[in-house]
């Protein structure tokens, strides 16, 4: 029994793994065929685990990046808010009195 070609993506590997499990569950295969399917299944399971681990790392990185972007945006917004509050509390007479004390 020849093993199938290496899967190209997670879905393909998972589908083939499900086929293998179903065939092994039937129990109607010769021992040698069962062993070959089992070996193929373990390779597919490892392939799927690796892809899932990579996906998890990618999601964690995206969440971390999003968190940093959000914190940066929050910090910038707070800075703008404080600047606006400073502008609201200051009127033209403050500028005139500041200029008078400078002279």
Please describe what this structure looks like.
- It is a single chain.
- By secondary structure, the chain is mostly helical.
- It has one domain.
- It has helices spanning 10-26, 31-89, 92-102.
- Helix 1 (10-26) runs antiparallel to helix 2.
- The protein is rod-shaped.
- The chain starts with 9 loop residues before the first helix and ends with a helix.
- The model has no long low-confidence stretch (mean pLDDT 82).
Average pLDDT taken over every residue: 82
- What sequence of helices (H) and strands (E) makes up the elements? HHH
Structural class: mainly alpha
How many DSSP-defined strands?
A: 0
Biggest beta sheet summary: none
Share of residues in helices:
over 70%
Query: Could you say how many structural domains there are in total?
Result: 1
**Gyration radius, in Å:** 32 Å
Distance between the first and last residues' Cα: 98 Å
* Uncertain spans: none
Count of helical segments?
Answer: 3
Strand content: under 5%
Shape assignment: rod-shaped
How would you sum up this structure in a few lines?
With 103 residues, the chain is an all-alpha fold.
Q: Keywords, please?
A:
103 residues, mainly alpha, 0% strand
Topology record:
Layout: H1 10-26, H2 31-89, H3 92-102
Helix pairs in contact: 1-2
């Amino acid at each position: 029994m020849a093993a199938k070609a290496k899967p190209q993506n997670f879905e393909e590997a998972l589908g083939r793994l499900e086929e293998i499990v179903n065939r092994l569950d039937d129990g109607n295969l010769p021992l040698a065929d069962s062993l070959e399917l089992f070996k193929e299944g373990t390779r597919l399971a490892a392939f799927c685990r690796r892809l899932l681990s990579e996906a998890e790392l990618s999601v964690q990185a995206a969440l971390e990046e999003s968190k940093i972007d959000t914190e940066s945006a929050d910090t910038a917004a707070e800075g703008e808010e404080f600047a606006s509050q400073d502008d609201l509390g200051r009127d033209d007479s403050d500028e005139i009195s500041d200029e008078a004390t400078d002279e």
